[in-house]
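hey so i finally got around to running the thing on that chain from the lab meeting. sorry it took forever, my laptop kept dying and i had to restart like 3 times. anyway pasting the input first so we r on the same page abt which one it is
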Amino acid sequence: MTRSTAKPIIAVSAMMLCVAALMARGHFHDSRTGYKPIATVEDLMELGKMLGGTLKADLKEGTDFNEIAHNSRLLAEIGNVLTFQQPETEADWQTHAGRFRVTARRIASAAEAQDIDKARTSHGELMTTCKPCHNKYR
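ok and heres what got predicted. didnt touch it at all, straight out
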């Protein structure tokens, strides 16, 4: 195994362990799938800030499309996990999390196509999904 193939294998292994850990326990539960997130909303927001900072720097540089796509997919996954943490009284939680997920995925798609302008535009759109949700739920 070369160094270049080891990095993706390690990353996938780490992701699988995280998914297994998330499914193993938590405060929220989807009875249809057995999915139970462990990370709190606050944990996910902190992770999102870290990934977002890295993504912003990568988009400014505009050369590492793999890293842009990777971090955008991870941000989209945060949106997925957030859908399982909806407060019972808040019906629009899904809308906010869904917009975040779809927009983050759009950045990844642009990066995969090596379209830096579209990735940057989509990143600007992603930033506009945060404020309405934070204004209501923060």
